[in-house]
Amino acid sequence: MLKSMTGFGRAECTRGETSIVVEIKSLNGKQFEVNLKFSPLLRPYEFDIRNLMQQVLQRGTLDASINIRQNGATRPVVINTDLAKFYYQSITMLANQLELPQGDMLNVLMKLPEVVSPATEQMTEEEWKDVESTLKEALIDLDSHRIDEGRMLESDLKQRVNNIDEYLLKVRELDPLRKDKIRQRLESLLAEHVGKENVDGNRLEQELIFYLEKLDISEELSRLENHLRYFREILKDEDAAKGKKLGFVLQEIGREINTTGSKANDAGIQQWVVLMKDELEKAKEQVLNVL
User: Fold this and answer.
1) Where does the UniProt annotation place the signal sequence (predicted)?
2) Alpha carbon distance 64, 10 (integer Å)
3) Which of 41, 116, 209, 271 is the most exposed place for a label (fewest CB within 10 A)?
């Protein structure tokens, strides 16, 4: 089973006057990176939240938000009057020095840091359990989207690899003909410029063998075939996180295709090599989204 790194998950829970909403959006990324927005009440649980997300999602660039809202009644708050007085004196002094109107001072004071704070800075264990279960539901929802995306990615990657395999067979068919054409071309050039009667047959055969060995692509084709087979085996692997491994194999596939193209010295083979490169680039783009 293949999983994508892209997806979206959402879950909501309401208990009494409290509503919990979790939303997570995932995009591709080389590592696990998360931009997490949550209520200050959840700060003691930040490590647990991140750890849970990484266990389920493993890799990707994530935007996650956990909102806790009070429906109707709100949490009791505490006003720090001493701090408010200190702010008031400082602001009044500054306003007098700058000859500025003081305006609605109370409204300004209520918005200053730590003047108004929740009566309790700690979340109850029961409330945390609700948040945790809602987060797990959102992660399951996101993971389900990743699986659906993964099925489409797997189908496309299989098609790309199968196309490269078909083009590889075409190259194998042309390879013997290529060698015959090279031999005929060299013999024709020697006959034209040296004279057929002046050519040492044994020496010519030795030189032809040496030259054809330098242009031989049988090893490249065999390795390419092995890499394609290994790529399919990885797709069947039960491990969900295999995007990096597939990417490494595609690099090896590209190396053999490039070497084949540079050594082929044949227009017909070059055409199939170009088609293989095109399929390879499409596969690389898709693998970037694989977990």
Assistant:
1) none
2) 10
3) 209
How many residues belong to the chain? 291
pLDDT score for 72: 55
Q: Using one digit for the tens of pLDDT, what is the confidence trace for 9-25?
A: 999 998 877 889 999 99
**Contact assessment for residue 36 and residue 50, using Cβ atoms and an 8 Å cutoff:** yes
Over residues 165-179, the pLDDT tens digits come to: 999 999 998 888 776
- CA-nearest of 76, 73, 103 to 88 is 103
Where b means 16+ CB within 10 Å and e means fewer, 219-252 reads ebbebbbebbeebeeebeeeebebbebbeebbee
Q: Which of 4, 51, 56 is nearest to 290 (CA)?
A: 4
Q: Looking at residues 34-41, what average pLDDT do you find?
A: 86
Residue 117 three-state SS: strand
Q: What's the pLDDT score for residue 101?
A: 76
Alpha carbon distance 231, 247 (integer Å):
9
**How many whole angstroms separate alpha carbon 204 and alpha carbon 4?**
57
Closest Cα to residue 3, out of 202, 173, 184, 145?
Answer: 145
Cβ contact 141:11 at 8 Å: yes
- 90-118: per-residue pLDDT in tens? 888 877 777 777 777 777 777 777 777 65
What phi, psi does 237 have (nearest 5°)? -60, 145
